[in-house]
Amino acid sequence: MDIKEYFNKNWESVELSIEKKEQIEVILFFINKYIKNNDINYFEFGCGNCFVTNILFDNLKNNYKKINFTVSDISEIGLAYCNKKYNQELIVEEKQDFKVKDKSMDIVTSFEVFEHLDDNKQDFYLNQLLKITKKYLIIGLPYNEMLEKRIVNCKFCDYTGHIWGHLRSYSKKDFENLFEGKAKLIEYKLCGSEEVDFNKNRYDFVNRIGYKNLNFICPSCTEENNEITLLNRIYNKIISQTLLNTKLSKTVIHPFWIVGIFEKLDNE
After folding, report:
1. Phi, psi values for residue 42, rounded to 5°
2. Are the CB atoms for 214 and 149 separated by under 8 Å?
């Protein structure tokens, strides 16, 4: 999977959805509650086009005497959209030490990133974040996502996998143990659109009878798959409502995102 090329696409199309707005409100709540300094040094890993970062900056710049933002991403195109006032760090290697000094950041953040990384990269970059923060980290991840719901088949390559390249989802326990005892979760909030989970067997069934996935950019070859028609959309809606209304098995509805603030333990 060429993850760098994948994340170099479509940054100009990001909009302030209700879901993004809720995430931003949670992040601002945590920062204003826990960061009481006059100055703030902020670091974000996986900033994309800084869409969320720019809104955070505009909301925080009047709350602190001095504010310093550093952002990091694998996408040169994404970073080009970022505020020129920010320090920028391009990730050019699979595992790359951050250039900022250890214990130099008041708050370290990462949103919608670690679900895309394999175990080794996740462990590496979580430890990198721990090294550079003085105390606090804010992380946002998919909450109990049912990955089977979003499996796609690319018509251009042999990719069969998650539509956005997610490799894992996170339960509350997974989230609490994210830093493996090196930082503790002190507060979290669930936010975002409602995620509806069904029995996996139902999805196996509807995929067999012709349920079509939405248009997508393949996370592997980055080609656009856009064959879905209006008829497909109507058919999908009927199938989705049938699944939602049937009582053959338990249906679980919950917010899609979990956002939490962690405190680094003293021994770190």
Report:
1. -115, 135
2. no
Find out whether 100 and 74 touch, Cβ atoms under 8 Å.
Answer: no
Residues 49 and 14: beta-carbon distance below 8 Å: yes
> Which residue type is seen at 211?
Y
Domain count, the chain: 1
Record the pTM: 0.86
Q: Which of 219, 200, 244 is nearest to 117 (CA)?
A: 219
What is 131-190 written as a DSSP string?
HHEEEEEEEEEEBS--GGGGEEE-SSSS-EEETT-----B-HHHHHTTTTTSEEEEEEEE
- CATH code of the domain covering residue 201: 3.40.50.150
Cα(52)–Cα(261) distance, rounded to whole angstroms? Answer: 17
d(CA 248, CA 245): 9
Mind listing the pLDDT tens digit for each residue in 94-142? 888 899 999 999 999 999 999 999 999 999 999 999 999 999 999 999 9
Residue range of the domain that includes 152: 3-264
Reported as a single tens digit per residue, the pLDDT across 157-176 is 888 888 889 999 999 999 99
Would you give the DSSP letter of residue 15?
-
Residue 253: CB atoms within 10 Å: 9
Taking CA atoms, 137 is separated from 102, 195, 206, in Å, by 14, 25, 41
